[in-house]
Amino acid sequence: MNTESHSQLAAFIWSVADLLRGDFKQSQYGRIILPFTLLRRLECVLQPTKAEALAAAHAHQAKPEAVREKLLLRAAEQPFFNASPLTLGTLSDTQTADDLMSYVQSFSQDAREIFEHFEFEGFVQQLSASDLLYQVVQRFASIDMSPQRLSNYGMGLVFEELIRKFAESSNETAGEHFTPRDIVHLTTSLVLTGQEQKLRPHGIVTVYDPTAGTGGFLSESDEYIQQVSQDVTVSLHGQELNPESYAICKADMLIKGQAVEQIKLGNTLADDQLPTERFDFMLSNPPFGVEWKKVQKAISDEHSHKGYEGRFGPGLPRVSDGSLLFLMHLVSKMRARQEGGSRIGIILNGSPLFTGGAGSGESEIRRYLLQHDLVEAIVGLPTDLFYNTGIATYVWILSNDKPAERRGRVQLINATGRASKMRKSLGSKRQFVADHDIEEIVRLYGACQESEESKLFPVEAFGYRRITVERPLRLNFQASPERLARLDDEKPIQKLVDAEREALKAACATLDPEQRFTNREAFTKALKAALKQHLPEGMKVGAPLQKAILNALSERDPEADICLDKKGNPEPDSGLRDFENVPLGESVFDYFRREVKPHVPDAWIDEDKRDPLDGRIGIVGFEIPFNRHFYRFTPPRPLEAIDADLKACTDRIKQMIEEMAV
Fold first, then answer.
1. 440 shares its domain with 487
2. Residues 6+ apart with CB under 8 A from 173
3. Sign of CA dihedral 416, 422, 426, 430
4. Nearest 10 degrees: CA dihedral of 280, 284, 289, 292?
């Protein structure tokens, strides 16, 4: 059966939606059509050994469940079985719902669980109440999905087409669980291209997706590997949070004859259900910009207690976006380099490239990835590619076994212009990446050379040291009425009893309101003398009170003397504090003398602000300013051309007004 026939079969199956129209929402069609398609396929696959399976079920009905299941699997000669004599074609027209659910309950556990996560029984009852169930059952019973007519690969194509139709019919939420096939194809091709050594015949290759969704990445990687290499066993692993997407993924695997026990349900970040596994290839499209507050405690505990022995050693991103947590999770699943290493393809929005300054969780994660030379390439994609968002996205390719020519370097590929318009928008998806563009992007990546769309940078190019630049505090002091009024705003003074507060204010008011001091030491001396002379006996002015008075009666003054600390060193002015990002590898002192000192001669570097990892002056930060490297300046139009356009527009408006006045 060719691709066109697969599309025709998928369209015929989807035409069941005509029966559902009016009784069900459009977004519910897939929740009925997909499990019925699965049910019919499983039934057709089991048909040749059905008699043997029924005989085994009868012969071993008294045996323990686990033993009986193994014997039935052997009799069915498949990774699943059904122990019921019923088929879709033999269900009663009077008690269809009861017969159907009895039939489904007779499947082996893996298959049965899929129907449970589809909430199949609920939809069966709704179909029954609408008098549609028997019609739907008969429609599916008439479709030949036997392996003789439709191979596992062909059935997979049909099922994927149905999944796509389901995603389109409910595109307001599809983007959360369904990655468009063009992006799946591109990412898979980037990760698997040039990996022929790993894809040797008769070998075993493991593929993992921690955000499996409906299984698009797993299916595509399996198909890709089977096309480029003969007799490779592909072991697919995944975990998915959404029960319905999990059911679709598992059904897709089962339909294609894949083992499904390594497809898990649950939150990958809080409950990794494949904790000891390591994989050859990993692919993921985690949710963009989704907060991780619900699992914050579990992740923070792992970070603080396990450190680098856990998944999140380098740091944690802000709670509002968990994308980098998924990336770190994947890195923790890499095989050791001496065992062949691993490759990762992950789709992220722009935030992980640059969000977070030096010392932040995001920056420390980028630092870890780049300094460990794990980032191989980042591909900037066109906008409007996804069903539920039109934002800019990027494919990160990571490897812990880079070829020699890529070591110590990162390739940036600008593919933002490689988009084709869709004939009809699907939600926010207005563009797609055509096959010829995918081939060209993969070629750019494989060539690993500089061009208009491809740039190569040493890892250090993305790093910097954030130094703290201080300037001295300069204040003048005066006991003017305006400044004396500010004494009431100081908390240490507010805490005094009324009599003490008034006495303090009166003592400060004895200072000459016209005299302006430009030296803090001189003013402090005058203040102490006034307080000693005018405060009631026994009232003491400690350091906090004195600081509050100085604060109220002072103002910044660039002409005043520098305020010195107890050791005689200039006291920094926090209001003038600034930060400079010094390129990694350059001397902070050389940079300071060249870029800062000529403009602010009295500034200095705070040498106490040091990086916690290397102990050197300045906090290390990493960011990847992708767009800056591909920015092309477009000069503005000449003023004469703009003036001409404005004049033409004005003349046109004037003419319209004159015509209206006639």
1. no
2. 27, 388
3. positive
4. -60
> What CATH number should be reported for the domain holding residue 54?
1.20.1260
Q: Which tokens belong to 439?
A: 């081939």
**By the 8 A CB rule, do 79 and 259 touch?**
yes
> Does residue 662 register a pLDDT over 70?
no
CATH number at residue 290: 3.40.50.150
Q: pTM of the prediction?
A: 0.84
Find the domain containing 490 and state its range: 475-556
Degrees to nearest 5, angle at CA 521 with 520 and 525: 115
426/283 same-domain check: yes
Report the alpha-carbon distance of residue 591 to residue 589 in Å, rounded. 5
- Same domain assignment for residues 434 and 551: no
DSSP 468: E
Quick one: pLDDT at residue 196?
84
pLDDT at 174: 43
The whole-chain average pLDDT of the chain stands at 91
Domain count, the chain: 3
Residue 468: band (very low, low, confident or very high) from pLDDT cuts 50, 70, 90: very high
Contact 84, 50 (CB under 8 A): no
Does the structure show a pLDDT above 50 at 325?
yes
Three-state secondary structure of 472-484: ECEEEECCCHHHH
The answer to whether position 229 is within a domain reads yes
**Which residues, in sequence order, are CB contacts of 288 under 8 Å at separation 6+?**
321, 323, 348, 349, 389, 391, 393
Return the SS3 of 527.
helix
CA angle 265, 270, 272 (to 5 degrees): 55
What is the DSSP track for 328-358?
Answer: HHHHHTBPPGGGT--EEEEEEESHHHH-S-T
CB–CB of 191/344 below 8 Å?
yes
Give residue 173's pLDDT band: very low, low, confident or very high (50, 70, 90). very low
- The answer to whether 71 touches 56, Cβ cutoff 8 Å, is yes
